[in-house]
Specification:
The chain is built from six helices and three strands, in the order ααβααβααβ. The protein is an alpha+beta fold. The protein has one domain: NADH Oxidase (3-Layer(aba) Sandwich), CATH 3.40.109. Strands 1-2-3 form a three-stranded antiparallel β-sheet. Helix 2 packs antiparallel against helix 5 and helix 3 packs antiparallel against helix 6.
C-alpha cells in the first residue's frame, strides 16, 4: 500500500489511508464490518458526551442506499454508485431543550474521523463528500424523523 510521505512517523492506519473514486462495484461489506464502523463513530468523544450526530447507513441496493445516492450531486452519483455502502452523518446544533451545542461540528468531525480509521483498519476505503443537495438531504431527514434538529454534514462510502 502507498504510504504518505510524512515529516515524522505516524500510524500506518493514517499514513496509508486513501480516498479513491475508483470503486469495485462487486465489492461487498459484511454486516459485522458495517456495524463495527458505525460503532467506532458511536464511541467518539463529544463535549458533555452529547453525541450530537445521527448516522444513516445504507448498503448497495437497499432503500437507504438509494435515498442517500439520490441526494448526491450528479458528479458524485456517477462514481459513488459503485460503493458497497453509504454512511451519512447528520448533526444537530442544539439540544432538545434548545440549548446551543457550540461544538457540534467538531464533535461530528471526531465521529467521522473514528469512522474513517475503523473502516481503513477493516480494509475498506472511505471517501468523504460534501457534494450533495442539502434540500434533498433535508427531505430525507424529515422522512427519517430527524429534520427538526438535524442537518446533514457529510457523506462517506
Amino acid at each position: 500500500m502507498t504510504r504518505a510521505d510524512t515529516s515524522v512517523e505516524i500510524h500506518d492506519l493514517i499514513a496509508e489511508r486513501r480516498s479513491p473514486r475508483s470503486l469495485d462495484g462487486s465489492a461487498e461489506i459484511s454486516k459485522e464490518d458495517l456495524l463495527g464502523i458505525l460503532e467506532a463513530a458511536r464511541w467518539a468523544p463529544s463535549a458533555n458526551n452529547l453525541q450530537p450526530w445521527r448516522l444513516i447507513a445504507g448498503e448497495r441496493d437497499d432503500s437507504n442506499f438509494t435515498s442517500l445516492l439520490e441526494c448526491l450531486v450528479p458528479f458524485n452519483q456517477s462514481w459513488s454508485k459503485r460503493a458497497a455502502a453509504f454512511i451519512a452523518i447528520a448533526g444537530t446544533p442544539t439540544q432538545a431543550d434548545g440549548t446551543v451545542i457550540p461544538t457540534f461540528m467538531y464533535d461530528c468531525g471526531l465521529a467521522a474521523a473514528q469512522l474513517t480509521i475503523e473502516a481503513h483498519h477493516r480494509g475498506y476505503v472511505i471517501h468523504q463528500m460534501a457534494g450533495f443537495d442539502h434540500e434533498k438531504a433535508k427531505e430525507l431527514l424529515t422522512f427519517l424523523g430527524l429534520k427538526d434538529r438535524y442537518n446533514c454534514c457529510k457523506y462517506y462510502i
